[in-house]
Automatic annotation (TrEMBL), chains A, B:
<keyword id="KW-0053">Apoptosis</keyword>
<dbReference type="InterPro" id="IPR029069">
    <property type="entry name" value="HotDog_dom_sf"/>
</dbReference>
<keyword id="KW-0963">Cytoplasm</keyword>
<keyword id="KW-0966">Cell projection</keyword>
<dbReference type="InterPro" id="IPR006683">
    <property type="entry name" value="Thioestr_dom"/>
</dbReference>
<feature type="domain" description="Thioesterase">
    <location>
        <begin position="175"/>
        <end position="245"/>
    </location>
</feature>
<keyword id="KW-0999">Mitochondrion inner membrane</keyword>
<keyword id="KW-1003">Cell membrane</keyword>
<dbReference type="InterPro" id="IPR052365">
    <property type="entry name" value="THEM4/THEM5_acyl-CoA_thioest"/>
</dbReference>
<comment type="similarity">
    <text>Belongs to the THEM4/THEM5 thioesterase family.</text>
</comment>
<keyword id="KW-0378">Hydrolase</keyword>
<keyword id="KW-0496">Mitochondrion</keyword>
<keyword id="KW-0809">Transit peptide</keyword>
<keyword id="KW-0276">Fatty acid metabolism</keyword>
<dbReference type="Pfam" id="PF03061">
    <property type="entry name" value="4HBT"/>
</dbReference>
<keyword id="KW-0472">Membrane</keyword>
<protein>
    <recommendedName>
        <fullName>Acyl-coenzyme A thioesterase THEM4</fullName>
        <ecNumber>3.1.2.2</ecNumber>
    </recommendedName>
</protein>
Amino acid sequence: MVFFFAQSLSILEMARSVSRIFSGFRCFGSLPFGNTQLKTQCPSVLFRTTSERTVVQVLPSIFSRKPRDFSLPNSSWGEEMMRLYNYYNSQSEEATEGQEDHGEQWTRLPSYNRSLKYATGGVYLSKIIQSKARLFTRNIRDPGAAFEYVVFFRQDKQRCVCVFQAGHLLEGPPGHVHGGAIATMIDTVTGTHASLLSAPVMTANLNINYRSPIPLGSTVLIESTLDKEEGKKKFILCSVTSTDGSRVHTEATALFVSISISHLLRG
Amino acid sequence: MVFFFAQSLSILEMARSVSRIFSGFRCFGSLPFGNTQLKTQCPSVLFRTTSERTVVQVLPSIFSRKPRDFSLPNSSWGEEMMRLYNYYNSQSEEATEGQEDHGEQWTRLPSYNRSLKYATGGVYLSKIIQSKARLFTRNIRDPGAAFEYVVFFRQDKQRCVCVFQAGHLLEGPPGHVHGGAIATMIDTVTGTHASLLSAPVMTANLNINYRSPIPLGSTVLIESTLDKEEGKKKFILCSVTSTDGSRVHTEATALFVSISISHLLRG
């Protein structure tokens, strides 16, 4: 619904989002595949752009421990899930092994189950952090039971692809994935895509056409492409298909609107 | 997505659906608030209408133990959730305490976490039952952690109302409910509504407009009304509002299509 920041972004992106809150939403750059560069200087975390230099006061206490990246393979991933992960990941690995990245490679987006678990302090944070809160798509730790997915992004084509393996706890009709679970993944992938363009964004509309049911346990591809941008609006197209593309399970359009953080405070 | 039978219907309705599978989809009547009467005769379970009397052959082995009805209050339900539950439930209780029910009262719909857990046998069942599968909206047993909801139906007005308390595991943006979780509840309530008209139905389209975010832990009202029926198509309108109706969180339209069981087998 609201993507305060892309829910699959890296810990650096988390920190960047936190820093926005405390700095009046100044832009500190973006992910490595963005238009600007994001660099860090430890031990205190420092965001530096070419034109400004800002120490983020709250960051020294932000990282309590390394979070689990749910987008990495685990023992529950089936053969098809692993095959597709390796396919896209091998292309993104190439980018880091020498060639300069001009957005022509896939980039795997890490995925965590707590929005701001690793941040502390601040009046605003104390309002929005609930110690037990977990990201809806990562709220079950049992591998393979619910949402197993990994999102890759390719900047030059403005395209995201998500490999999604549906676990047994996502049941709607007997033996098949709940329509709400499919909507959840569509919201997640398109929302992640939109937030890479300009976070934070809010889902304004999801229009989903269900074509054929998805059996529990199966692996499918969820692809999102940027349709157009109009001011603060980002229109995204999305499809859910079998991994060979022969069967269309779901098609959707999504509209996201860039918002200010204050929108959430009015929530 | 596909509502094989209404996911919040009673164990009797489950049995009726199972019996359909084994009997070539004969109609054994419907729920007490349907157009026909449904009665039982034990020890073997019997469905009787005023004009016909039918023993359901598969039922003696169906009930292994009494399932948990997730639509009943538990310790996690907050004050507002309990107030609204009591409000609607008191009206439905009146219906059972004497007055003949002409659909002018609310009827609480029970809710279970396994579609066909309590049924055994049959070639078709062996294909669709996975022992670990759980209904997506009831897959977490920890009270208050995820989806706490109860659906009431009023036949004379063709209207469903759902009291929904959003738990901490449904997080999308920090402190707020994930758009996919909201879509899931909309699919659930409208799908339940459509299936009361003619199960089984399949979600063909969900068109969701998100107006304002829902804070985690809050209780909201989800209301669905029948817009129109055109042959196999059922058009349902849905809104998610604050409990006093002053704030619209989400508005949606849903289209469901009546299907045959074979649709799922092709899934």
